[in-house]
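Possible regression after last week's pipeline update?

I re-ran a chain I had predicted before the update to compare outputs. Posting the input and the new output here so someone can diff against the archived version. Not blocking, just want to make sure nothing changed silently.
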Amino acid sequence: MTREVTHVTHTDDNCRPATSWQRITAAFHVWRTRRQEHEPPTSDTGSPAPETVPGAHTLWRMRTTVQEEPGALAALCGALAGQRVDIVSLQTHPLAEGTVDEFLLRGPADLPASALTTAVESAGGADTWIERADAHDLVDAPTRVLGLAARTALDSAELPLALRQLLGRCTIRSRPAPAGADRATESLAVEGALDDTVMRLRAPEGGMIIVERPYLPFTPTEFARARALVELDARLGPRLPHGRDVFTLPEGSDITVRRADTRDLEAARAMHERCSPRTLKQRYHGPVGDADRYLNHLLSPRYGRTLAVQTASGRIVGLGHLLWDGDETEVALLVEDTWQRRGVGAELLSRLVAMAVEARCSSVYAVTQASNTGMVAAMRGLGLPLDYQVEEGTLVITARLGEAVVTSAEELGSASAQ
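New output (post-update):
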């Protein structure tokens, strides 16, 4: 089951059937919006600071706008030096009204973000934004962009993740091309557009990718990098890693797990026909007759990754979906009736979670029913902290990802990413 949210997982209403499935999920949209608004990251929460270790340092990412005049950057660097802050890297983004300087800084662990901001603004910086950085930010921008391009070239499902890692915390939505679009709309779709905190890019399959980052305006440089990634994806066309992994079920049967996409649509529909109405209703929470209509969306690499379980004869008997949803990620399972209670769902779920860890997702959630004891047991079997939320008779189980999952991801290795 997927939810109607304004994140990368889903498209607009006009590209999916309006069913009771969407009406059920509307309650979750309200709840999730209340729980996690898209707000500016807080660099200093006011919580008691942990005891500092002598000589310890903190990494910061900072942006500030300076006037394009001689000595402006030097004054800024002098102010940072006065706070015993080291400039690890610097990028400049020229704008009409000045230059946006983006710093990676290393400062004393006991230096708060507010002190850095005050020092920078006293030296002429304006519209300053700051947040904590981590080791991933130590990679220089060209190397990071090339790495994201390489990942995108190997797998269509990587584009939303690449955009998110390139641009930071943002909301990504896909919209189909409107019927009877005029020339202005067509031109916009081809060229893309940048409007402060909103970026519009031509989607490889047609339509538009809309990226929003309310807490920090996009720069022309970021827009150019994002557009280059999308153009690369469009030129390469549909692609999917072709690796597969054979594993043995507890009962002793060997079965194959592999990546799947829309080319598996007919085999997935055939599995639907073999599933009981009860199994389909537990999975899709709506009229059983609507189940096939969701498959094209769910199997599309644009919205996530899908794993298929197949027998030696090549028949698909299970599907597991990992669907991108902003800072959260949905997992969903469907296992054919005759293959249930045999370890297929647990195997799929563990591999999907390993993929989520690899993609640096902070959590995964499953939308199900309390009567779906198999899915509930599989989530509990992850051995992770779980949150439960019941809305309108439907259960949302959220698993917080941590070191235990990182270990399992390393054990699965490349097999789970293929």
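Follow-up from reviewer: compared with the archived run. Residues 247 and 253 are 8 Å apart (CA to CA). Marking as no regression found.
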